Amino acid sequence: MSTLSPTNHVLRSEYQKSVASYWNQEKAPVNILLGDVDGLYHHHYGIGDVDWSVLEGPEETRNDRVIKELHRLETAQANVLLDHLGQVGPEDYLLDAGCGRGGTSIMAHERFGCQVDGVTISEYQVDFANKQAAKRGITDKVKFHFRNMLDTKFESGIRRAIWNNESTMYVDLMELFAEHARQLMPGGRYVTITGCYNDVLGGRSRAVSQIDAHYICNIHPRSAYFKAMAANRLVPISVIDLTPATIPYWELREKSSVASGIEGPFLTAYREGSFHYLLIAADRI
Ligand code: GPP
Ligand code: MG
For ligand 1, atom 1, which residue shows the shortest CA distance? Predict the structure, then answer.
């Protein structure tokens, strides 16, 4: 009989425990206040043109306008990810790997009517996200689980689509894509939006290292994604450089009351070309 606690089955290393503990205590205004706008709590950044007029007009409501605008750009990012999931119907099963507080999962269900399972190694996030699903009356279709995306224990070959919305930098890509390939049906779609460093310029720049330290993550080089996909029956169909589309979000965020301090390193890394914000979509063959 195993003497491991359920937590130890999910959290398999000291590193994973430290990541879980970071997200179990995370309550940053940049995430909570934006999510409070409409109840979609995101853990990713925004894309698209900023409406700079939010900085004009009455001062008393400026902060609210900026927060709504940042949230609009983050929701736009999730919509672009969902646009790349291919044909999904109400009978399909999707998996959100590293689901955070559940925003993208809820949007996927609202768009496709499908079943969505989200997994995270933060028990706080599981509870928070399940409460959001309950508020919307969709707990029969959208479920969040305390599970490890590298070993979900979910059934093989049943997922129409799987995504990682800014969560791949916490895991080994070879292990991750092997687990995704196991769970996807043949012809199923994988999509990630991620920050990766630019191999062309060599190793991690200082700004990229600062981002790693801030989130306790390990940003991968761009090449690592394609090597790990090729090794795991995932064949890219779209690669979109979203870097120019995300810079305005960071420029607005830097000027906002919810700036967290990481805005400078993101802007430096993107502007110097050492870091890209990439969408990659791939088919499981
Ligand atoms: C967090 O989103 C995102 C990550 C930890 C992944 C790092 C992403 C890269 C592209 C490198 P968040 O919404 O929790 O972050 P913040 O609190 O800064 O808004
Ligand atoms: Mg955020």
Answer: 43
